[in-house]
Amino acid sequence: MTTLEFANVTKIYNVRGSGQLKALDDVSFTLSSRQTIGLVGQSGSGKSTIAKILTQLEVPTRGEVLLDGSPIPRRGKGLRSYRQQLRMVFQDPFASLNPYHTIRHHIERPLRLDHVVPRQEIDAEVRRLLERVRLEPDAVMGRRPHELSGGQRQRVAIARALASRPALLVADEPVSMLDVSIRLGVLNLLADLQREEGLGVLYITHDLATARHFSDEIIVLNQGRVVERGTADDVILRPRDPYTRELRAASPDPEEFFRARSAQTSGGVR
């Protein structure tokens, strides 16, 4: 089992002309394989800063990130190995895929860089990964991102993230840029992959309704501080902090969302 510990992390930015901005204030949590944590908060709450620190795009001002009890290396083979263990699905599938390259190239690249399978097995692995995210390989491999729908592009991004066979996945608002009609299919796919692959998933969102039904634990952030945490049902049904109650009031009815999810029938990928 892989365990990622975000330990007492504070992040302070120096803003020119405005002094300092504390984006995170002593935030801690532990994410393990086969667990989904929903990280919930409005824009500016610190969610994306956590994602950047986990992917080593930012460095904590105080605190540290530990993988299986050891600090994350900041350079060299150790950092590369860490990035193979933790992959990210970005918010915007329109921007996260290079428009000049084919879908085959996007999936092949991490397979080659991380030496996931022998060279002669790369084509078969590309096909397997696309099928894993419910895309037809022959229909999409030769295409470029602009030739696919938004939902298909996000599925390609998920397949690319899975190519290195990570233990942990950071999904940063993975459906917020998609049409409402196709969000549920992508979220169901992520939930199935988490369960079947034994992934640890940090699901970053502003929507308590989806966080409840896709998370084991929910952490609520407000202005860089953890204001509430607990099991998904406890946080949604018995919120203690006023901010959490405001988020719940602003979210769609969780029971209605769950009924829609349960009633969804299989169909074509959009």
Automatic annotation (TrEMBL):
Coiled coil: none
Alphabetical keyword list: ATP-binding, Nucleotide-binding, Transport
Region (Disordered): 246-270
Transport is among the record's keywords: yes
Pfam families in the record: ABC_tran
Origin superkingdom: Bacteria
Entry keyword ATP-binding: yes
PROSITE patterns, sorted: ABC_TRANSPORTER_1, ABC_TRANSPORTER_2
MF terms (GO), sorted A to Z: ATP binding
Residue ranges occupied by any ABC transporter domain in the UniProt entry: 4-248
Protein name (record): ABC transporter ATP-binding protein
